[in-house]
């Protein structure tokens, strides 16, 4: 307590944050860094677009479904339904942020049971170790050996050690050339790039290989940490994450207000000076907010369709997994973007007993988005209830340094937090004028998952 009192006695620059997932994380970090932070949210719940809704009646209301959930859904209060599906990479950036800020004290996590990829109309477990590669039905016997050698190469790869590069220039050799070096065929390139490196399109193939190799290493290292899959999920839903960072901010002197309508962003001489709500102005020197609060400062760059499906069974061909991710690579369904399926269940305290929540998402490409995800929906049948949302994607039109208004990007279709964390680090750099330094905030924590059942 003594350390916290010392921190709170320091003079702080005042900033304001209108809350969504990224904004909650940033405001928690800003509070730790000594900024005086005020949170304001027009909603009555934490997390905005990335909230988890409970009870189930609220989900029905949000999506305009008449009546109440049927009795077969169990108690409505057993449900915590994510509006935006995301998993955490066990060795990824968000886990590291949670550890260094000690937000893990407020959260419990469970390892996702499996990671799968769609090929030729069937679901296969994603092989990411040498042993799994040799036993995978995704490849023939000769391809297994070649893929095994590729994984060994990736595991040893160190851009600063020429001996591990085997003639590859990390900043010049393309990933397509690396695949060719190991004789990997198109189907192996497909699941490697989309289910291990988690790229949404094939544009990465003709770019320098360093980023892709590091992404594959991250997947493998995350998998080796807990064994079942590289992904983690917080018990009681993703809404626990913004609440955890809100608590962190409060510990360091942050103030937060829910259910506060935002009437105006107040400007003077081209810079933000406050936010007007219910006739009062909260003064600030910097403002962090999501695109919906400043539509005149963003541009639309696309749309995402998400379909929340309630099931009474696990997904077929996943070995009765109570949670999983399935990636449908773009080439498998003749699209430009991948389709994602993530499933959690009663095992994560987000649904009634023996109920499952599967969420399908992808980037919209046509004027009939529902048809675009049919391949994924077919994997989930029978479906008890579905809720469809189509969300506009926005990104800021400037970096915010002149106005001191720092805008986040909309959540994309991916079912992991790595792109979201890239956005958080980008806002931090614009806001603070320096890179986010993990090492500076490191507190020596190493693990966030206890013993698994």
From TrEMBL:
Lineage, highest ranks first: Eukaryota, Metazoa, Chordata, Craniata, Vertebrata
Origin species: Knipowitschia caucasica (Caucasian dwarf goby)
Domain of life where this protein originates: Eukaryota
Molecular function terms, GO-annotated: GTPase activator activity; Rab GDP-dissociation inhibitor activity
Described function: Regulates the GDP/GTP exchange reaction of most RAB proteins by inhibiting the dissociation of GDP from them, and the subsequent binding of GTP.
One biological process term in Gene Ontology: protein transport
Spans annotated as Disordered: 1-21
Keywords for the protein's UniProt record, in alphabetical order: Cytoplasm, GTPase activation
GO cellular component annotations of the record: Golgi apparatus
Pfam families associated with the record: GDI
Segments of skewed composition (Basic residues): 1-19
InterPro entries from the UniProt entry: FAD/NAD-bd_sf, GDP_dissociation_inhibitor, RabGDI
Family, per entry: Belongs to the Rab GDI family.
Entry protein name: Rab GDP dissociation inhibitor
């Amino acid at each position: 307590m003594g350390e916290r009192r010392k921190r709170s006695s320091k003079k702080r620059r005042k900033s304001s944050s209108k809350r969504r997932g990224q904004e909650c994380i940033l405001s928690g970090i800003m509070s730790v860094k000594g900024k005086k932070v005020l949170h304001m949210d027009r909603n009555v719940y934490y997390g905005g677009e990335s909230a988890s809704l409970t009870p189930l009646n609220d989900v029905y209301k949000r999506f305009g479904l008449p009546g109440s959930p049927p009795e077969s859904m169990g108690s409505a209060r057993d449900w915590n339904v994510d509006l935006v599906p995301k998993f955490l990479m066990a060795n990824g950036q968000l886990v590291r942020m949670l550890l260094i800020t000690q937000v893990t004290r407020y959260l419990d996590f469970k390892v996702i049971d499996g990671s799968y990829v769609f090929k030729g109309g069937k679901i296969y477990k994603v092989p990411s170790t040498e042993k799994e590669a040799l036993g995978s039905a995704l490849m023939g016997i000769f391809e297994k050996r070649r893929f095994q050698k590729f994984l060994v190469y990736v595991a040893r790869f160190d851009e600063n050690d020429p001996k591990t590069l085997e003639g590859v220039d990390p900043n010049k050799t393309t990933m397509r050339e690396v695949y060719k070096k190991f004789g990997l065929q198109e189907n192996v390139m497909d699941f490697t790039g989309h289910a291990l490196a988690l790229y949404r399109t094939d544009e990465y193939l003709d770019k320098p290989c360093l980023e892709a190799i590091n992404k594959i290493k991250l997947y493998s290292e995350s998998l080796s940490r807990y064994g079942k899959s590289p992904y983690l999920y917080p018990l009681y839903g993703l809404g626990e994450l913004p609440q955890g960072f809100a608590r962190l901010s409060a510990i360091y002197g942050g103030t937060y207000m829910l259910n506060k309508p935002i009437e105006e962003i107040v400007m003077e001489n081209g810079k933000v000076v406050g936010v007007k709500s219910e006739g009062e102005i909260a003064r600030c020197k910097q403002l962090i907010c999501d695109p919906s609060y400043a539509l005149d400062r963003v541009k639309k760059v696309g749309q995402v369709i998400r379909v929340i499906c309630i099931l009474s069974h696990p997904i077929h061909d996943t070995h009765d997994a109570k949670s999983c991710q399935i990636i449908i690579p773009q080439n498998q369904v003749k699209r430009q973007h991948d389709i994602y399926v993530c499933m959690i269940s009663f095992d994560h305290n987000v649904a009634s007993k023996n109920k499952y929540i599967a969420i399908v998402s992808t980037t919209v490409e046509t004027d009939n988005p529902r048809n675009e995800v049919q391949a994924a929906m077919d994997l989930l049948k029978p479906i008890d209830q579905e809720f469809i949302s189509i969300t506009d994607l926005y990104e800021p039109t400037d970096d915010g340094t002149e106005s001191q208004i720092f805008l986040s990007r909309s959540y994309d279709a991916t079912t992991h937090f790595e792109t979201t964390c890239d956005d958080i680090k980008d806002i931090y750099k614009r806001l603070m004028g320096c890179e986010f330094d993990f090492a500076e905030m490191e507190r020596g924590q190493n693990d966030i998952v206890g013993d698994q059942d």
